[in-house]
Write a structure and sequence with these properties.
4 helices; mainly alpha; disordered C terminus; about 0% strand; 2 strands
Length: about 180
């Protein structure tokens, strides 16, 4: 399950969940949410691996461009040195060497910028996906906290059919008390 699918599934769970009477909270099946979160856990490492691969690919492209540029510069210097025998030949060689070096630098610059733009685009998409996932998880947790607070305020036990699976709130409260202690 990729990140976008998991976000969509969380949104579907939230939109199709039963409302809690007399509150703005909803009841969400714990197993369904845990399944979506597990899918996110499995999907994110793949996304991270892809991001690392993209960065490595960019670094390889930049290194290759530098290597090619250096080779072109070295070739230009050798050509210039070879042409030093005559004055006119030397002037022409210097001009050509400077042109080749400038072309090589421009080509290396273009390759580097293209590689950086490509990686930046991929990382921006990944960042957007992560932000969406984080917002969905935060919304879900806020809704669960709101439901817990609402249940505590009413002080009424829920009917057997409306009660969540054992440990839903205990688990959440246990995490909160552990983080405070």
């Amino acid at each position: 399950m990729d990140v976008d699918d998991a976000i969509g599934e969380l949104e579907r769970l939230l939109s199709t969940s039963r409302p809690v009477p007399l509150s703005s909270s909803i009841m969400v099946n714990r197993a369904d949410v845990e399944a979506v979160l597990e899918g996110l856990r499995q999907g994110l490492p793949e996304e991270l691996r892809q991001a690392r691969w993209i960065i490595k690919e960019r670094d390889d492209l930049v290194e290759q461009a530098r290597s090619e540029a250096q080779q072109i510069v070295d070739d230009a210097r050798e050509e210039r040195d070879r042409m030093l025998s005559e004055t006119e030949v030397v002037k022409a060689a210097n001009r050509e060497a400077e042109r080749i070096v400038a072309d090589a630098r421009e080509e290396a610059k273009v390759l580097r910028l293209e590689a950086e733009d490509y990686v930046d685009s991929k990382l921006a998409n990944f960042e957007i996906a992560l932000h969406k996932t984080l917002k969905s998880v935060e919304k879900g947790r806020e809704r669960l906290r709101g439901r817990l607070a609402s249940d505590e305020l009413t002080g009424e036990p829920e009917s057997r059919d409306d009660q969540p699976q054992a440990g839903v709130y205990d688990h959440q409260l246990g995490e909160d008390s552990e983080s405070q202690g």
